[in-house]
Amino acid sequence: MSDAMAVRIEREGAGQGGVGWIVLNRPDQINAINDDIRRGVPAALAELEADPDIRVIVIRGEGPRGFCAGADIKERREAETSLQVRRRMQGSRWIESLDRLEKPVIAAIHGYCMGGGMELALACDIRFVSPDVVLALPETGLGLIPGGGGTQRLPRVVGPGRALDLLLTGGRVGAEEAKAMGLVTRVATSATTMIDEVRALAQQIAAKPPVATAYAKQAARAALQLDLKSGLDLELDLFALLAPMHDVKEAALAFREKRTPKFSGL
Hints:
- This protein has 11 helices and 9 strands.
- Helix 4 (116-122) packs across helix 5 (150-158), helix 5 packs across helix 6 (160-169) and helix 9 (210-222) runs antiparallel to helix 10 (228-242).
- The protein is globular, with a radius of gyration of 19 Å.
- Strand 1 (7-12) and strand 2 (18-24) form a beta hairpin.
- The protein is α/β, with parallel strands linked by helices.
- The N and C termini lie far apart (41 Å).
- It has helices at 3-6, 35-50, 82-90, 116-122, 150-158, 160-169, 175-180, 194-206, 210-222, 228-242, 246-257; strands spanning 7-12, 18-24, 54-61, 66-68, 105-109, 112-114, 126-129, 134-136, 186-187.
- The strands form 2 sheets. The chain has a 6-stranded mixed beta sheet with strand order 1-2-3-5-7-9, with helices on both faces.
- It folds into 2 domains: 3-206, Alpha-Beta Complex (2-enoyl-CoA Hydratase, Chain A, domain 1); 210-257, Orthogonal Bundle (Lyase 2-enoyl-coa Hydratase, Chain  A, domain 2), CATH 1.10.12.
- It is 43% helix and 15% strand.
């Protein structure tokens, strides 16, 4: 299967304010991660990040069974030394491509979301799940640990205690439990309406001034790394950069004129 087939790009919305969809397209394998997906996802992210008409990116899995079942065990390499494994994985830290994006990224998750699939979702800004979702990091049961950021991102999302519970047991988590612990942001009304609900959320965000959404994302993500004083300084710097922009004036004018604002990113 080629990169183009394993990862598909879809675009919605003409002109500015569009939504770009990245589709993991290996439904017969529950979109298990192979080298095509490892190469295809960063390439698709880069393409949509560079597209001025796209303001929000959504990642979803094709087929009814799930978002992503994790690594494709058919591609497991045998007889590698620790050094060989480290070199190979260091050269393919594909999930980290999400960390370099300015545009908001939503993970639309249904069915199975396991291992590397959950690590991919953890790197997204918003996790929107179907009621049928099953999330897990089962690697310790295979004699491994998560290798795509799971041990680092999960504690930042749910706290170290809950993260260790999931990491050590490999336990599976459903939609409502995941929402209660803060692992996911939203739960769809039903499996059949999830994509429409995700689309509505993406369109709502895409309608906002794009520089403001990028700066909000930058500041919120930096909060995980910076001390409070440095974070407040960054927030003030970004606020000051936004204040004289045309989109701020357009928002105020549209409010006075009782019309929908048209944001240009200027």
